[in-house]
Give the backbone structure.
Amino acid sequence: MKRLMKIHSKKLILLFLFIVVVFLGVVQLNNQPLEGRPVTGEISAPREIVAILERSCYNCHSNKMTLNWYDKLAPLSWIVKKDVERAREAMNFSEWENISDDAHVGKMWAILNMVKAEKMPLKGYTLLHPEAKVSAAELDIIKNYVLSLTHEKIADKNKITTDSKKRTEPTKRNIPKTIPQSPNGITYTDEFKNWKAISMSTLYDNSMRVIYGNDIAVQAIEKEEFHPWPDGAIVVKAVWEQVENEYGEVRAGNFLNAQFMVKDAEKFKDTEGWGFAKFSTNELIPTGKTALFAAQSCIACHRQLAKETGYLFNVPLKVNPKK
Amino acid sequence: MKSIFLTLLTSLTLLVLACNTGKETSEYTRIVFNADSLRVISSSVNKKLETMSLLYGNDKAYRAMMDSSSTHMLGEVYKFVTWRYHDNPFFYGSKINGELLSVESIYIRENGAVDYKIEKGSPGPVNNSKLNQTERIRYILAYKPSPLP
């Protein structure tokens, strides 16, 4: 009886293995390989920076990846494909030709923040590719490079501002005749000027911001209703240049842009329920050629670094009101 | 046996209650400053003092500030609010306002008379010197609205 059971269970195991092999075979046959893309414009940065990027980031964020054999095997290849596609969409070091100097600085700050917060390279990736880990010394190299870029930029800007000396005086009303609209359908509105200021901030010593929230957003902050934020919440960040005055204070210089985040879980599924829009200069020129721009330039940082507050960087800090 | 069980149960209940009250006393909260119906007119950052300020005002105040040649008229209301700033915990390279340090109010009365009131805290120095009330009013009313489209 015992012998009969042994034979029976052996058969079962063999059958199970057979099914697994057949399944994996079918899966391999249907395995869509990653799309190969040409290098159209390589990132330009000091050698030691590029060396770090090549070792730690290029496998997902460039068109020059070198995949291991197991990366090509389904089902692992599915995860790799999804990660690489998303990574290339957010930042591709092989398609750097259309990146402006400002955007280059912004992307470098994003890299510094992602690495510093240990969000990049992804934990799952370094498990299989330990050589991709960024050391503390390398993080310092990135930090020094990013700071030097920013200081150069401020020095350049100061040269221009001392020449022209003055900022644009506040204008009464110069909204374009047609209402500016972002490619994802978000339209510019003036209403934020009467909303509550939820916080104010500076970024890299070269811009200052006031962040406004509508009533739904203010209530969500007060109740810490961040997971998820209620639909209808809108947050608008107005951004100005920094201009130093005779008291050594920084005041708002020229208006740079207004950045909108609109919560609509159904409409903006791909970007964690938030619709992004950016309207620049007094002409309020919308950012992005297609609705994809938010997936390419906004959500990556918000998703990885500000998950705790439902993907917003500038909710008010937690403070002790009695202090 | 019953009394031991009761003692244990009471101590456990007290412990749970104590933990809860402990949580309530450490009230770190996110506060959105309530400026009533006033709107933001302008902002400033003082890197030496590590402070950030917003100047709020009503419509009359905003109009008066837009037109720098105009004298101040009855009904203008201003609020000058200052916070300590900190590194933004979510983004290295960014600073964000934190604890509320001071709130000052200015009301323009009949014939351009000015009422100045410190509602909270004590205003910081400007250019290393502590300003008296008249200087403080002049300093606040000299702000220009931040340009917006």
